[in-house]
């Protein structure tokens, strides 16, 4: 019997004996108590649903009464708020935490025994769960070593959170023990990264297959304990900015990365439109009415929480809805296999405008106009949670979801006021919105936990006063039934002003990146020191999480927070960066001299780009060349999309030179994926920084009345060389994004629509540029086809217009005309020319000594 079979037998067969015994005793008590039942229990196993025509409530105030009562935030008396529990029929069955129907076992003594026995059963099942998921991970990523590891779930009899121990067995294999699948995965990660010096990364992919043979032995066991119960991942909008067009292969890499990083609470937000469409069809909405509500594939995140509705550029194909639903099935199945608890969506209340046709008496209000969009695409219709139809739709949504994926979670994401203010600021109103939302969740899943982003309390702080926040959160009467994401903890924490969300469990999150910006940026001290201080100060902090809008770079900053979840003291970033660099570049071995250059390069980054302390710039930077050209307003921007450089730009040149020096000593680095990615990334930032003084010189020359021909030519040449550098790596190419979008299509019409969505998001972000350049990218092909032509048109205008006659409105209109035309272009062939980074850098660095300094060519 091999080692894997042995461990499965121990983990499954032994607890099975306890299960049989427990079930036998339980059956005796159930049979004894069955005669006490007053009704046939079969009637109590399911909720009954009235046809949608009967979902109206005669005494519910109509829309005109409602709007009149709430105009200018007038108060609606507390007793007139119809609660979900009062408006719906009384549930036929109440549910205990153990899933038993209320009244099914009426003898108190029997209930005590059954609870005790079921507790034992649950404990047995916990340690009988399948280990196949983690064995499959090893088989996927390092097949040569599939027999090198044994995994064992162990009850450490400790009050701490997840724990692991990695040790070397007598036969030379490695025994990984943990009290959860997540602990086992993280323990495996620690051995592979710290000892075997291999890891898995977002863009570089997995290097685990490069682990040496034989694997290095351990002189002493590796141990670890998490300081928090939850390790969360995903901002809602990441599912548009980053994963909108991901394939299953992309998701497989991501999920393995998440498992090995110890993430155990990921948002699973793909494909929910399938469930929503079925719910809407059930109440009588037509497909045309539903389609007018749904947004395009690159913008679904904002449709889901009520910022936008409808799709510019064409309707969302139902084939997209079906394919994303099938993808979601694979995602959640893999999450479960890897020991994660998926966070699934719930019904939010946002509905098509035609809801008034099928539910004419429903209480609905309109959201606010969002980000300058025309009313056609915003002012979403919101079904108030105290309307009985809300609870029925919630039940329908969650039940259909459970039927599709199984009863795999009790945690649901639900955001009602993302950058939209509630209809009223009345405290009773706010309390009742959440109270009835909570009741609707509990009616669908008695164990439901409502997860919401705390972003609204920061983004719309003008509305969300302390008393309103407290009133809103108080609607969830049981603290453990809610989980808050303090979305921007590293820069704009809200947990202090809300007194740890008034006792509700919450997660300290690093947002860091808006829209998928690509500048090098981080706050190493805030991520380590502030996170541990919050853990010590707040009794209701239960986790750390990653909530970046776009997963586009700066990977070390996210690793840092996830590893901080396993350290009670702030991580020393000096040692951490050295270890991270050694693992990233060491497969195959590196000389001390080469590693020292790499250490020094990254230490410069640690002290500069990754150590921002000027919190006027709170997130990843954006280069001014990505913005619509203008004579003013581009420089020194702060906030979420800063254009300021909060370090000496020459320090980054020094880091680039050290990376180049390392590659000159060890030419094999030029074939190492991680080094190639990082070299492109650092070169990109060096050039982006150099663009600023060139632009400043252009502006000064223009205002001085001289020709800007020379200055303009330099700008364009620099951007062309940047494009050539970016185009050497598929992770920095526009074609990769577009090809991913087009790959989901069944025909050319769909492919062109998906490409339009992909192009629009990273440029105009809206049919008319409503959020222009918010999600801009520094990608090869995008620089050459979009940014350079914009700057050329701008420069042409300057060369033909005196400074005294400069008209910003006139040139903006010219630029918008080009931007709109670019959206409609298509790329039937998206295969980009592959060029050698080493030769490109040699040419570019020789051409621009003022940018790259004095150094030897690569």
From TrEMBL:
Transmembrane keyword on record? yes
Domain of life from the UniProt record: Eukaryota
What keywords are annotated for this sequence in UniProt? Hydrolase, Membrane, Transmembrane, Transmembrane helix
Question: Under the GO molecular function aspect, what terms does this record hold?
Answer: hydrolase activity
Question: Which positions fall inside the Alpha-N-acetylglucosaminidase N-terminal domain?
Answer: 133-216
Residue span, Alpha-N-acetylglucosaminidase C-terminal domain:
576-845
Q: Where is the Alpha-N-acetylglucosaminidase tim-barrel domain?
A: 231-567
Q: Does the keyword Electron transport apply?
A: no
One of its Pfam families is NAGLU_N
User: Matching InterPro entries, A to Z?
Assistant: Hex-like_dom2, NAGLU, NAGLU_C, NAGLU_N, NAGLU_tim-barrel
Task: Enumerate the transmembrane spans.
Answer: 12-31
- Protein name per its UniProtKB record: Alpha-N-acetylglucosaminidase
Q: Which organism is it from?
A: Aspergillus felis
């Amino acid at each position: 019997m091999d080692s894997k079979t042995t461990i499965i037998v121990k983990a499954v067969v032994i607890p099975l004996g306890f299960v049989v015994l427990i079930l036998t005793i339980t059956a005796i008590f159930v049979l004894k108590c069955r005669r006490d039942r007053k009704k046939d229990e079969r009637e109590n196993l399911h909720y009954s649903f009235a046809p949608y025509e009967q979902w109206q409530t005669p005494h519910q105030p109509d829309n005109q009464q409602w709007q009149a009562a709430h105009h200018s935030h007038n108060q609606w008396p507390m007793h007139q708020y119809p609660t979900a529990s009062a408006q719906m029929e009384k549930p036929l069955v109440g549910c205990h935490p153990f899933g038993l129907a209320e009244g099914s076992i009426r003898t108190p003594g029997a209930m005590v025994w059954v609870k005790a026995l079921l507790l034992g059963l649950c404990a047995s099942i916990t340690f009988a769960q399948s280990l196949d998921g983690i064995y499959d991970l090893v088989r996927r990523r390092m097949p040569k070593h599939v027999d090198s590891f044994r995994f064992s779930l162990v009850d450490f009899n400790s009050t701490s959170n997840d724990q692991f121990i990695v040790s070397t067995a007598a036969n030379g294999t490695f025994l990984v023990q943990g009290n959860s699948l997540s602990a086992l995965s993280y323990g495996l990660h620690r051995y592979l990264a710290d000892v075997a010096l291999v890891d898995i990364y977002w863009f570089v992919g997995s290097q685990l297959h490069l682990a040496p043979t034989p694997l290095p032995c351990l002189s002493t066991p590796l141990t670890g304990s998490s300081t928090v119960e939850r390790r969360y991942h995903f901002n809602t909008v990441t599912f548009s900015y980053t994963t909108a067009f991901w394939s299953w292969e992309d998701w497989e890499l991501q999920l393995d990365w998440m498992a090995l990083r110890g993430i155990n609470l990921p948002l699973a937000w793909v494909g929910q439109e399938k469930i929503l469409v079925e719910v809407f069809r059930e109440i009588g909405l037509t497909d045309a009415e539903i389609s007018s509500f749904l947004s395009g594939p690159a913008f679904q995140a904002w449709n889901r929480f009520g910022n936008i509705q409808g799709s510019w550029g064409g309707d969302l194909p139902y084939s997209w809805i079906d394919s994303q639903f099938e993808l979601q099935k694979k995602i959640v199945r893999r999450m479960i296999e890897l020991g994660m608890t998926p966070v699934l969506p719930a019904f939010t209340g946002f509905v098509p405008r035609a809801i008034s046709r099928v539910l004419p008496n429903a209480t609905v209000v309109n959201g606010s106009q969002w980000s300058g969009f025309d009313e056609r695409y915003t002012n979403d219709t919101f079904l108030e949670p105290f309307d009985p139809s809300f609870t029925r739709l919630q039940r329908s949504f969650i039940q259909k979801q459970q039927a599709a994926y199984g009863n795999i979670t009790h945690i649901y994401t639900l955001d009602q006021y993302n950058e939209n203010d509630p209809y009223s600021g009345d405290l009773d109103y706010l309390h009742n919105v959440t109270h009835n939302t909570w009741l609707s969740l509990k009616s669908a899943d008695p164990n439901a936990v409502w997860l919401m982003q705390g972003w609204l309390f920061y983004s719309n702080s003008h509305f969300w006063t302390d008393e309103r926040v407290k009133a809103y959160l108080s609607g969830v009467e049981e603290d453990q039934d809610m989980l808050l994401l303090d979305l921007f903890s590293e820069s704009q924490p809200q947990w202090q002003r809300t007194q740890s969300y008034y006792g509700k469990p919450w997660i300290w999150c690093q947002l860091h990146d808006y829209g998928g910006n690509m500048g090098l940026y981080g706050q190493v001290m805030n991520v380590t020191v502030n996170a541990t201080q919050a853990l010590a100060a707040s009794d209701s902090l239960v986790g750390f999480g990653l909530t970046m809008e776009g997963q586009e770079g700066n990977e070390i900053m996210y690793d840092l927070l996830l590893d901080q979840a396993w350290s009670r003291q702030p991580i020393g970033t000096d040692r951490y960066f050295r270890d991270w660099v050694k693992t990233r570049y060491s497969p195959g071995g590196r000389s001390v001299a080469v590693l020292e250059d790499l250490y020094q390069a990254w230490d410069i980054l640690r002290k500069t780009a990754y150590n921002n302390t000027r919190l006027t710039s709170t997130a990843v930077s954006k280069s001014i060349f990505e913005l619509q050209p203008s004579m003013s307003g581009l420089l020194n921007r702060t906030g979420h999309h800063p254009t300021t450089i909060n370090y000496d730009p020459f320090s980054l040149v020094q880091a680039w030179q050290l990376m180049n020096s390392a590659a000159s000593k060890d030419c094999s680095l030029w074939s190492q994926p991680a080094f190639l990615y990082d070299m492109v990334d650092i070169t990109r930032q060096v050039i982006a920084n150099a663009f600023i003084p060139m632009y400043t010189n252009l502006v000064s020359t223009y205002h001085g009345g001289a020709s800007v021909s020379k200055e303009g030519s330099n700008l364009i040449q620099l951007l062309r060389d940047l494009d050539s550098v970016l185009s050497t790596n598929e992770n920095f190419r526009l074609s990769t994004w577009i090809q991913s979008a087009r790959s989901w299509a069944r025909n050319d019409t769909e492919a062109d629509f998906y490409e339009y969505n992909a192009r629009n998001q990273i440029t105009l972000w809206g049919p008319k540029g409503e959020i222009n350049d918010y999600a801009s990218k520094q990608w090869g092909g995008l620089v050459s086809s979009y940014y350079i032509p914009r700057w050329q048109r701008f420069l042409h205008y300057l060369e033909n217009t005196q400074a005294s006659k400069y008209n910003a409105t006139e040139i903006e209109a010219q630029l918008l005309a080009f931007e709109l035309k670019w959206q409609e272009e298509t790329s039937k062939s998206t295969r980009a020319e592959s060029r050698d980074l080493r030769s490109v850098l040699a040419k570019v660095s020789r051409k621009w000594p003022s940018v790259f300094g004095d150094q030897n060519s690569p």
